[in-house]
User: Fold these one by one.
Assistant:
Number 1:
Amino acid sequence: MSSASPPFHEGNFRSKPIRDLGLTIEGTRLAPLIRQFEQELRQAGVCRLRPEFHLSTEWGVPFGTIVIGIPFYLAHPELVEVHARHVGHVEGVSDADILRYFRHEMGHVVNYAYKLYNDEEWIKHFGSLTQPYVEDYRPAPFSTRYVVHLPGWYAQKHPDEDWSETFAVWMTPESDWRSRYAGWPKALAKLEYCDRKMAELADCEPLVSEVELDEDVGELAVSVEQYYRRDAVESEDLPVGLEGSLRAIFEDLGRAEESHPEVPRHAASELIRRLEQSLMADVYRWTGHFPERTRLLLRRMAEIADELQQVYPLDREVEAAVAVTTFVTSLATNYVHRGSYLA
């Protein structure tokens, strides 16, 4: 079967209801990846449980089901481009990345299918499932209590995510988790529990087999344009007073005694915009600051740099990039841990 993405029925797809775009998993790059993932499950000894897959608005597993939702934009490259343009960060840009998300979501499927969240030892390692689920969680980077799988220290968000991240690390082929987490006793204990529990469940039929499609692509009446307009991130909490920091970065780099006067000067805003894509992903991975927030922050910095007409010498571009990266990472860390960029 071909894995080529199907064409849209009309060129101007952005104004059509998403349900009318004819999006399916079969015939796209997702189908062979699902088959590869199912083979991984068999190799991991998960024999009695097979999840259902469908296209939805985001990655997720509705509580009490065995259904894995895949973001609809991953079913067509044009939609991936639209998502990247509006959101910036694509959760599943490569085949390896998509498999990483499959493994994480399968952790939720296992948890709900076998009701592991009621197991006393599960609660001992991961906590209570009734703990409030907070979107703007504040992780402790490099904590040895948790495994690292998805970016943003995602295991620290909630006990359910902690288990799913642990499961994902456990089932990743050739992950060598015992060696990797040998110096992290609490994370290793969670992995050892997962290993024991999955061995116990190898021949057990799941307790739950509910299939409920949450926000299925076939029911989405909004258009692509409306969908991204609805999910736009507000910028009202951006920091004020960035002018002085940007002057410090670029005017120090532009001092005549440290750069030949004939070296070309480039606009600082162009550099900031070029750094946007990589910084969104990397800052999220290492601080937990959401990519969409980093994008807004960088775009505001670029606007201010233009207003101030900030430039830098081309022969010091690496230093400029390092300075911008360090500055943005510091702001992001403040936001994640204090709830404010400049607190």
Number 2:
Amino acid sequence: MEFEFLGASLINLTINLVYTIVALFVGIKALIVVDERLLKGINIQEEIKNGNIAVSLFASSILVFVALIVIFGFKA
């Protein structure tokens, strides 16, 4: 009985892991497309070095979005 539960748990973990990885790649690709279309002439790294706080907030929101994708992938 315990082996069946362990097997089901491993299958569930594998499904969640695959979902998380796929969602992460799709989310990152979507963010790259949005970044390329909205911020054509802006170099984020240079703007952060120059002290532009708005660009820093935008970059951190991207990281929070990626973290949310990972969290919801393992939550199911």
Number 3:
Amino acid sequence: MTKPIEPMIAEQGQLGHPDLVQHRLRLQPQVIPICDNVWTIFGVSLANCHIIRGSDGLIVIDTGHSGSEGTELRRLIRSVCSEPVRAVLYTHLHYTRGTATLLDGDDAVIIGHPQLDSNIQRTSRSFSGQRNILETGASLPQSGSDAVIAPAPQWRDASAYLPPTHTHLPGDGIRVAGVTIEIQEGCFDSDDGLAFLFPDYDLIAHNLVTGQFPNFGSLAGGRYRDPLPWLRAVDYVCKHPTEYALPCHGLPRSGRQNIAEHFQINHQAIQYLYDHVQAAAAQGASIPDIMQQVRLPEQLAKHPLMRQIYGTAAHAVQAFAIGEMGFWSGEIRDLLPLHPNDEAAHLCQLVGGPGKLLEEAQRQDLDPAWALRLADAAARCGEKEGLRLRAELLRQAALRSSAWTERNTMLSLSRMA
């Protein structure tokens, strides 16, 4: 068994994987000058906000998670620009909740995908709100070892969302604030994604790649993130790189070769995983088999741009397998599904009661995944100590995960036990 990586202490006493702690040190709020008349506001929200000064006002791209974030973004915009905001562009539905407070009365057009508003209305009524709270750590304590290592969105803060006043599809060309914008394919974690090319500034604003492994298997849930439109969009940027790239997440980049290589390494990783999932499925592998077999090759897994801090390769493989193969895993036993409560009861009967399950789960040499299942079964059969052990096993796994999505979800669930 591989020795687990020990957690380290972050700057405010949080415990986490060393890669995640080091990543956190780069997330200081700042306004970053990109080139003449272009800035990125980084570190205020989970997403960046980009500012482009046109001939008669400003273009702002994405507006944060809430009205309070929109207010802070406007304050920072005013630290570098005094012109009114003439246009707001949405890369996708997730960072649209700060618009009204960011505008603060400015008369602006709001541009997004035709599907964006209906997606926002649908997700506001779905389970994803609770899942987002788990994934982002919004319910975790503000300090101490279990606090979030990256800023958590304030989901309970009031939304200042405003719907698009104009909708566009990839291939459209528009002109706002005296600036020409070419709209390109930008789908990634939703089907309402747009990328915006600014030929006059030689830059693209996008939600396609970050400086980490892309999150194709979100613990927050949601619909299948089909990699094929994303692969096409990323391939286009690989072949037509701009001088500047302004991502929704992560630091801006400059230099055509640097940007082309950044997009290429993301394309290679996801294309590799997707192709190997498809190949394994075609050979009759079940979803558990695929999850066990398909791994990133070492040169990709160890690439600095593939650090698994946001998404993980394992989650992507599972998402691609389920998304392409459907709900049946391909395993015979899953044709007769058994509820975890019933499985726990059968295990208890087999070994002689929940106390025996708990005793086995407490063995120091046990695989952590198996120990968690045994502790969970003991808890489901009424063993109170099983609840405590289940929570502790979740917490220990969380503190050793390099992905903040896993850390936050596991810690949040461990504290609910």
Number 4:
Amino acid sequence: MTPVLIALLVIALVVIIIVAKSMTIVPQAQAKVVERLGRYSRTLSPGLNLLTPFVDRVRATIDLREQVISFPPQPVITADNLQVGIDTVVYFQVTDPRLAVYGIANYITGMEQLTTTTLRNVVGGLNLEGALTGRDGINSQLREVLDGTTGPWGLRVARVEIKAIEPPPSIRDSMEKQLRAERDKRAIILTAEGARQSAITTAEGEKAAAILSAEGKKQAAILSAEAERQSQILRAEGERAALFLQAQGQAKSIETVFRAIHDGKPDQALLAYQYLQTLPKIAQGDANKMWIVPSEFNRALEGLARLGGADGDGRSWMDVPPTANGAAPADDGLDTSSWFESQLPPAAAQPEAKIELSSIADAPLPPVPSLSEVAAEVAQQPPAADAQPPATR
């Protein structure tokens, strides 16, 4: 190989090296910090960038995407002197590559230490229960502190999350027992509340049933009383009508008997016989201890004596008149051929049959004379012209 060829190869190699040193490619979402003779020169953006060979050099390549860092559990003592282990996750992004390179030697380590100290300060003012239930507050405080502190480092903290809080085993057992007791308490309370509601509902149902039953009994009693009232009213109206009709019948019967007595003109013997028939009826009652003999009883006895054959000029109703041919009746009995012949007109021809009940009810009944007045009136009447002396036996 000739010296000229070797020189050309060397020159070509140098040119290649110079060209390689003068160009650099920056990927998307990354940035490169360039130093010129040891001092910060500029930050290269994504794409093809030119450098001054042997003067400029790339100090660091920074990732501009949002990054996630998970820190191991950190021992933290709470306000009630309990040591717990807390795992945290930090979401951040590099906003200024120059500050990230020159503001801090290692921003990952710095952020880890800053997170640990801030976490101890925040959780140290809380008890265990507050730390377990106040994660959102702890996350907000951590993000505010970290974002304010890492700003000079060219970083932006998006959010901080507590991944886990691990209390001591004894505390976990106590918490489990407390949780179990709380759940048992809630179960007992819910059971008692259910029993209470069931008892209230049952009592309300029984109350409503009792009210409905009482209302039903009340309505039944009212309807029964109303039915009994209507029944009594109807029964009373029926009895009133029956009594009215019976009174009308008795009135007509008394009137008919009175007229028949007047038309028949009874004598003292008939009255005496009626007295004798009435006397046993007066003494029939069990409570009748004493009864009074009327003043007309002596006259009735006299008539009865004359009826039995005693002396007297009166005429008896049992005197049998002579026969049609003038002969005396037979001694073997009385003539009863005319006993059942009525002297009254037929019932349809009587004026009472034409009188309506309303006229009877409106017309006043004639006064009924006493038995003594009837007997006195009969005694004062003269004997009939066709009367014959009584037959002698």
